[in-house]
């Protein structure tokens, strides 16, 4: 997979292959062909690591000019992103124009209502008040039927919709990252998702973190099966989701807001943020014989998990020998 991805996307050769060199050490093989294949894989990985000794990772959380997405966007292969960007901006400008027109219309309507309310008096109706001898008929203010009160209440509660720009600041690394992720090379997407699946989902216990996330540009992505496993999401929610309307009066700058989302790599299938995803990558447990819990050999799991112990250490730990084993069996298994 890495060979294919590098051949079709040469820029990827300047970034780490992600697979640690010592990842395959615990594998136990019986056939010579399997040993040969493992040797070829190891030599290839070593060559890739040596060629990018000072390189970055495509999973880095910090986005800079050296990030893969930004460099690909700026490369000749990234020319198509300008069309995507223009389409998003065109749609955003149309929506922003509609919001501004709505605000102006609401301002006119608000002004008319205020003028109407200023020219009205409070509505009064005849009502009988008091009891007994003090019972009498008077004109009292009827707040429910009073048009002036209704108009003043309508003015106080009038709101207008606002628009949040869908993209990060113009020509920023964040904008380039977002546009790249919306239309990343297919081979890169397969390579990254497969690499993440193997190194994270297989070699590391699945994360149980759950997060609220936002993907407001989803409509511009052509995906038959939904978002890829590794995608972008924002921990911050769109402003329109928390409070889509502003109380009047407001100016154009108040209803046309910049993008406030903060994008990060996100595991859509595992519902977890991607942050140093391979820090604990290890397949030793997957390649180690599992001893029955609470069995007589349970205390000797360390002996088959690695080879860092010595025979003298096993002999020194004879006091830990369970009753179901003889000392000879204990030493033989541990050594």
TrEMBL record:
Q: Which domain of life is it from?
A: Eukaryota
Q: What is this protein called?
A: Uncharacterized protein
